[in-house]
Amino acid sequence: MASHEQGEMLLHLYELRREAKLRDARTWFIGNFHATTAEEVLAKYPPPSEGGTFIRMVTTYWDMVANFANRGLVDEEMLFETSGEQWLVWEAIAPIVPEWRALYKNPHYLGNLEKHAKRYEAWREKRAPGANDASRQMMARMRASRKASGAN
């Protein structure tokens, strides 16, 4: 059962999500991030470009939220019931993270998000079998559509 303090923390994290720049970054990330290698990320979204900044904002925000959940500061099931965006972000970056970890010489880079996303996926599959696969198929169709239209 979630505590009052955990509920307050979750509300605070949602307030942070509403901050204008982070909201812009999240909107951009979901609609525009399509890279599958670290080299592609650097070519398409080099620092200090807006895309590069938005990628860092979104990934580090969700890694922070995952860290809170991993430590029990936020009731994880309550978070799972109210947000799946962290899983979508992880799905988008998962193929690239091993390269980033090697590049930064940090085997733990975005590790909180990875652990949390894996638990979310297991929780979701138990509650809604097939939902993860359906989401992956939908994301693949969206990527194919963007690619066909010539979007980045």
Describe what this molecule looks like in 3D.
The protein has 152 residues and is mainly α. The protein has one domain. It is built from nine helices and no strands. Helix 2 crosses helix 4 and helix 4 packs across helix 8. The longest helix has 21 residues. The chain is globular, with a radius of gyration of 16 Å. The termini are far apart. The mean pLDDT is 94.
Q: Determine Rg (CA atoms, Å).
A: 16 Å
Bulk shape: globular
Overall number of strands: 0
Number of DSSP helical runs: 9
* Helix proportion range: over 70%
Number of domains: 1
Low-confidence runs (pLDDT<50, min 5 residues)?
A: none
Profile the largest sheet. none
**H-E string:** HHHHHHHHH
What does the secondary structure layout of this molecule look like, with pairings?
Blueprint: H1 4-17, H2 20-32, H3 38-44, H4 50-70, H5 76-82, H6 85-93, H7 97-104, H8 111-127, H9 131-149
Structure in a nutshell:
By secondary structure, this protein is mainly alpha-helical. The protein is built from nine helices and no strands.
Write out key terms for the chains shown:
152 residues; mainly alpha
